[in-house]
UniProtKB/TrEMBL annotation:
It comes from Cherax quadricarinatus (Australian red claw crayfish). The chain crosses the membrane at residues 15-40. GO terms for molecular function: ubiquitin protein ligase activity; zinc ion binding. Keywords: Membrane, Metal-binding, Transmembrane, Transmembrane helix, Ubl conjugation pathway, Zinc, Zinc-finger. It is a multi-pass membrane protein. It is found in: Membrane. This is RING-type domain-containing protein. InterPro entries: RNFT1/2 (IPR044235), Znf_RING (IPR001841), Znf_RING/FYVE/PHD (IPR013083), Znf_RING_CS (IPR017907). One of its GO terms (biological process) is positive regulation of ERAD pathway. The keyword GTP-binding does not apply. One of its GO terms (cellular component) is membrane. Residues 140-178 form the RING-type domain.
Amino acid sequence: MLIPPDHEGYGVMDLMWIVIVSDYVLKLVTVLVKTIITLMPHSIMHYQNRGKYFLVVEMGSQLYRSLAPIQPWLSYLLDGYAGPRKVLGVFLSATYMVCKGPDIVTKMKCFQSAIVKFIHSVNYGSTPSKSQLEDAGGLCPICHDDFLLPTMLSCKHIFCEQCVVTWFDRERTCPMCRTQVADDPAWRDGSTTHFMQLY
């Protein structure tokens, strides 16, 4: 998607077509990758880790989608002016890059943060003792089944590890008392941004 177009000099409608279709195709590729992650069996990819994969894929997609329109815009702005008006094209290109720069830096920081979260394993709590499990009733409050790999959060509530990891892919707080336990769960549920990259 960063390949320069074959023809020289195109109009604003051609530019919009190239940018919108490129963004839409990249968004569909992102959805396809997330679908493949979702279809992976538990033996290949643990269910608890899917949120981290979704986050990295989405942040990588947003970074690439913010880079993709640069080449068509610069080509349009630089090649659209000839002769003495070429200075205007260079000025508009420089203005475009100044406006685009902070967006790219923000997306790169988000992608870097996603990579760090992907590499580090997240431990939301500790393993409870037998007496703590008995005090909790022996059933997970989320799935209403016997505890499977029980995890006790900092607020002392106990859940199945898979249940609580799935919960924290969507929420920040304990399911029982609403004490904040996890960081921002944005993009860990497999969702994709609805915004289009026009510039």
